[in-house]
Each structure stands twice: as C-alpha cells, then as structure tokens.
Amino acid sequence: MMQLVLTVTAVVLSLAAAGAIIRIAIGPSLLDRVLAADVLLAIFGAALCIDMAVNRHLNNLMLLVALSIIGFVGSVTVARFVADRRESVRES
Amino acid sequence: MNPETLLGDTVIDAVSAVFMVVGALMSLGAAIGLLRFPDLMSRMHAATKPQVLGLFLLLFALGLQLRTWWAWPVLVVAWLFQLLTVPVSAHMVGRAGYRTKHLHPELLSSDELEAVVQQAAGKRGFDDENPAGFNPDDAGSPDRRGRLDGGPGAGSA
Amino acid sequence: MSRKRVSLRQELPLLVWLVIVWGALWQNFSPGNLLFGALIAVVVARLFYLPPVELGGRFNVLRAVPFAFIFLAKVVAASFQVLSLAVVRGPLVISAVVAVPLRSHSDLLVTATGHVISLIPGSLVVEVDRSTSTLYIHGVNIRSPEDAAKLRQEVRDTEAGLIRIMGTKDELSALKQEVGA
To answer: Which residue among A22, B156, C56, C157 sits deepest, i.e. has the most Cβ atoms within 10 Å of its Cβ?
Structure first.
C-alpha cells in the first residue's frame, strides 16, 4: 500500500511543483516569484516528509526545519528589499 | 508478529496513507491557487496557508509510521516553528505587496486601509515605519470609532 | 549597560520552552540531557538578551485546549474552502481589506491574534496600527459589507478567546462586561 501512496503523492507533488515553477516563470512581479519559490520550498519539504514516512526514518527532519527557515528568511528579506526600493522611487 | 498488532498496523497504515495523500493535495491546492488567483494578495492566501495543514498532516503521518514516542516532540517542534514563521513572512510579503500597489482595486469590494493611508499621508507625509500611525480621533470611518472601547491608552500613543 | 533586570519568574516560561526544544531536538528526555539543556538555556538567555515578553500573569489551560482544537478545525475547514475557491472561482474572486480594532492593547495579544488570524486561510494581516491596536486584514472572497462584518466578528471572537486564555485580569473583566451588556 505504501508503494501506491508513494506513487500518488509523487504525481501530485510533481504537478504542484510544475505549477509553482510556471508561476515563477510568468509571475508578473518579483513578489509573485518569491511567493512561488516559497511554495516550491514547501513542496520540497512535503516530499522530504513523505520520504521519511514511507522509509520510516527521521534523517531529513533537520533538513526540513532548515528548509522552512531558508524560506522564511528569504521571503522576509526580499519583501523588505522590494518595499525599500519602491519607496525610494516614489520619493525621488 | 501476532494478529492483533497486525490489525492495528493496518489501521495506522491506512490513516497515515490518507493523511499523506491529503497533505500532498494541499501542496497541489497551493499551486492551483498560485496559478488561478488574479492578484498577489489572493495568491498569498492560497500559497502559504494550506501548507500549514499540509505539513501538519504529513508530520502526523510520519509520527504514526515511526511508532516511537520520542519522535513526537521533535515533530511538534518542527510544526510549531512553521506556525511561528509562516504568518510573519506572509505579513511581510503582504505588507510589501500592499505598499508597492500590487493590489488591483477593481478586485476589492472595500479597502478600509486606503482612506487611513491617504489621511496619514496628507497629514504629515508618508512615514515608512507606520503609515497608519495617527491619532484615531481624526479617523474617517465612524465604524472604527464606534468599536474602539476607549481603553487606557486608546489614541494616546 | 542599562538593561532592565528580568526576574526569574518572568524568564521561566522561556527557559522551560528552550529546554523542551533541546530535549526534542536530541530526541532524548533523560534527566542528564535536560539538565545540560537547562544550563545552556540559562547561558543563552543571559548572553543573547532580548526584551522579555510581558505575559499577563495567567494562563487558562482549560480554555486553551478547546481553543487549540477549534483553531485546528477552522484551519482544516478554511483550507478546503480556499482550495475550492481556487478551483471553482479562480480569477473572479473578490477580496477586501477590512479594519478590525481590537480590544487589547498589549503587544502579545495583538501579535497572537494576528498570528492566529493569519494562520487561518482566507485572512491575512496586511498592516498593524500599534497605537490603536487595529489590524488591517485582507480577506479573500469578501463580496459585501455583510461578509466584512462576519470577518470582523470572527477576528474579535478569536481575540476574545485569546483574552480568556492569557489576557490580563483587566482585559478579562472588560470582556465579561462587554459580553454581559
């Protein structure tokens, strides 16, 4: 049964990753792309989780936490940067 | 392995299988939302939040599969980290999106922040850190005034 | 350095939390490991000083547990709602930015309310006005003033729940008065 679950989730997550990558490619603005990249990271995290559950180990858990922290720091930094740049454009 | 634990194993396996599939579907939902919603803000709703439930379900399935009690605390901590970080990054991106005019006004039924920002901007120029930091006695909407319960410090900060 | 002295009682929740995280990360809750974790927690809390979070001095576990379950149920329900919204309505969705003035003026409660609201799909804190403790919330699928009122009511209910869990006594009595009136 686990093999079936693995197949189904692999297909679903691949579709999701494809969607996120399409949004990264066409996203009209930087923030859209950041958001989509965040989703892509979350999809990687989900894949790591499923790997751990199917193979019954915990080796990826720290990777998972690190992944979510990277996503957090990345999107916060970019959000800050975008805000600052537009602000200076407005003022000049 | 004796029969009764075998039955329990099957039930646990089935539950975790369902959780894993639903958790993966949450990721797919985020991707669908990313592609189908019209503007940045509504995309954010679809993108960040279903992941919270998705990761919860996946970690729960993982905990069920591992069948050891010492795995649960670290799973809970991993989920709590996500609970703490997701709203912050979503707020930062959303705030940046609002300030850089990523909203499409035609897709909003009402925007109660707009009037406040206008008023604050007109009053003393645009203040980066606190665009809405103004005296509430000057607020435009009567609705907002009516709901403030006038506690200590209301409007005096 | 002119840092305010933090009492042990104020610091205790943080230390306990750090020890629990330590034990969870090592996946080992043996007394020796926890003791070492406590030592590191004290050193970290002393070295990397942060202004303490001012707790209200009470925490109602009996209220917290149902609140957590209701929160989880709301997250599940709203996740599927947003999912169906994405599939069915898609590009035609209408949203709104709603101002919600909160009762409490403590930073902790405003932050906690914002977090809970942000975690429930369909609403997102765009801006916080700290001086009036007003949250500006972007809600998805808000088509009419009635929907906006519903969202506002939900936020205020969430805040009421949080006040019942960990608000100060003043806030609690103010809340009781408001409900009674």
So the answer is: C56
